[in-house]
């Protein structure tokens, strides 16, 4: 019988991952596959919070000459599109889901209320947190770290297009070295592209481990929750 290593998790899915092989927009076939993996976790009794990025629709700094605040708010709106798409995929396979947004939009989602989010999780509902932190100059990585701390998640599962953390870009350098374990300080000192420094510091201050793994194989989500050795673990004790 499969037993989950974690009772409550924060799953951070990059926007690029939702685009699948298309590179832009939402690959609904791939999103449905991710939804099926999340359903498997729900069956195991895992309480799941999710934060989605928006890189498949909008990158905050891609507007040439655009005001940074405006660009960031556009990115927050894009995360809501991704959140609703993922919610639809989950609901279609019978997974009870709630979307909570940091920017109020009552017609499509609940506003973020911590106590309500906790209650949803306790009832076995998947909660998708959208619109980042609701503030410009903060990334969805920071939103994932913040929400993870607020819902008392045991771990952040960072699902990316790369299968872990490397000393340099493995897509460019053939000799890139993959790390199996890192400490928060290692990440900050080496300037490794795990999460941004604000998010990493927040995880360090609240002792929330970060497991970085590739979403090229959607079953990696379940493997991570079961405690199998995949990706790169960033924690206080990692050496």
Automatic annotation (TrEMBL):
Gene3D superfamilies assigned: Acetylglutamate kinase-like (3.40.1160.10)
- InterPro entries of this UniProt entry? AceGlu_kinase-like_sf (IPR036393), Asp/Glu/Uridylate_kinase (IPR001048), Uridylate_kinase (IPR011817), Uridylate_kinase_bac (IPR015963)
Q: What is its EC number?
A: 2.7.4.22
Q: In which pathway does it act?
A: Pyrimidine metabolism; CTP biosynthesis via de novo pathway; UDP from UMP (UMPK route): step 1/1
Query: Which GO cellular component terms are attached?
Result: cytoplasm
Q: Localized where?
A: Cytoplasm
Q: Residues in domain Aspartate/glutamate/uridylate kinase?
A: 7-213
What is the catalytic activity of this protein? UMP + ATP = UDP + ADP
Q: Does the keyword ATP-binding apply?
A: yes
Report the Pfam families cross-referenced here: AA_kinase
- Which positions does UniProt annotate for ATP binding? 12-15, 55, 59, 166, 169
Q: Where does UMP bind?
A: 72, 133-140
What activity regulation does UniProt give?
A: Allosterically activated by GTP. Inhibited by UTP.
One GO MF term on file is: ATP binding
Question: How does the record describe its quaternary structure?
Answer: Homohexamer.
Known role: Catalyzes the reversible phosphorylation of UMP to UDP.
Task: Name the protein family.
Answer: Belongs to the UMP kinase family.
PANTHER family named among the record's database cross-references = URIDYLATE KINASE (PTHR42833), URIDYLATE KINASE PUMPKIN, CHLOROPLASTIC (PTHR42833:SF4)
The entry's protein name is Uridylate kinase
Gene name on record? pyrH
